[in-house]
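Quick log. Single chain, no ligands specified.
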Amino acid sequence: MKINDEYDLRIEKMTNSGAGLGRVEDMVVFVENTCPEDLVKVKISKVNKSFANANIVEIIEPSKYRVKPFCPMQKVCGACRFQYIDYSYQLKVKKEITEDAIRKIGGLDIKIEDTIPSPEIKSYRCKIQYPISRTKNSGRILAGYYKPKSHEIVNIKYCPIQPEICDKIIEFIRQRAFDYGISGFMEKNHTGDLRHVVIRSSKYTGKNLVVLVVNATKTFDRLNDFAKAIYDEFEEVSGVCVNFNSKKTNVILGSKSECLVGCDYIEEKITDKVFRIGANTFFQVNPKSAENIFKYVKNYIADNFETPQVLDAYAGITSFGIVVSDVCKKVVSVEENKESCDLARTVAVENGVNNVEIHNMDAGKFFAKEKRKFDVVILDPPRKGCTEESLNEALRLSKDTIIYVSCNPATLARDLKYLTEKGAKVQSIQPFDMFCHTYHVENVAIIKN
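-> predicted structure:
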């Protein structure tokens, strides 16, 4: 097999990177934009020792699971890779992705439950992060998502997976920034003002927090005037903030934000609790699906413990801790982001929650110094998962159960393998569809210590 060779192959399954997997004799071939049961003609683009990559030349026989994407930009935009796959089958694919990771990486033979669907599959995404650039000649603002595997911006004017008001806000920014002397960012030479626009949108109130990420270390008059124009234009905008990020980095938000006009947060309701979400605070992008996860965790605790003590680690704005507080004697939360902790304390007071103890520090450092034991330890780490030191401490601090919430099946599998090698037992794994039309899947693992 060599580059530019062409083959016909049948796609067997999807991988955890969103590619289809087929075989030519004993060689595994990965093909983007395919669906299980597709028969495709492909051209080899890269050959390694044990696998190859290929591009579609022709779909000879489409899978019965193929559907017409509801977004006209699906093929060029990198956001909704699975939109051409029937939604009910997407759920099956995500279960299989989890199964593969748990079996191959974790070495564990555990039954994976069927994926719980998102209550909404359109207009579900309530955190929008658009990179901003500009055209070379006219300086016209470009705002959208990157093309797959590139930093070329697709100038998107309509996105059906986010609230309609977000399209209108972005279009106003795109059209009016030039009037206020605000230039788009050029990544190659690190020039220009506006790097990203981040919008936090509330399902609960319909309000939106607009965050202008700028290539600067302090605000300036042109930016202040532009922020006021956005705020005045839309009654749905609760406030406009600026985030300062002048570093040469792919990280979207810098560490410092400032409210320029209006309010510096939105409110979102999960179960019966109302949360504040600020410019720099983590909160799930799909509130309706997140609510399913919170209910699942709360119900498990309520059904299996009587007034337990719970540790909520990597807590963000202590959303898990505050939601489950009703069925707990005490919740101790730890989060390293100060803004999140400040908001969590405010949210706890506003919701009448008085049994949550909030610590602003690195989870690993907190684990190392903590002497108390907890009935349940909730781990909700970032995509990279937990360190072995943190897992050891979670085992030490847990009297009975660890609930591990993960957005990455591969790192979940790795960490579950480590925990089981230390004597823990995985009781169940429940996938949830948090990121519709993508290959991403959220999982909740129940681990007995």
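DSSP finds nine helices and 22 strands in the chain.
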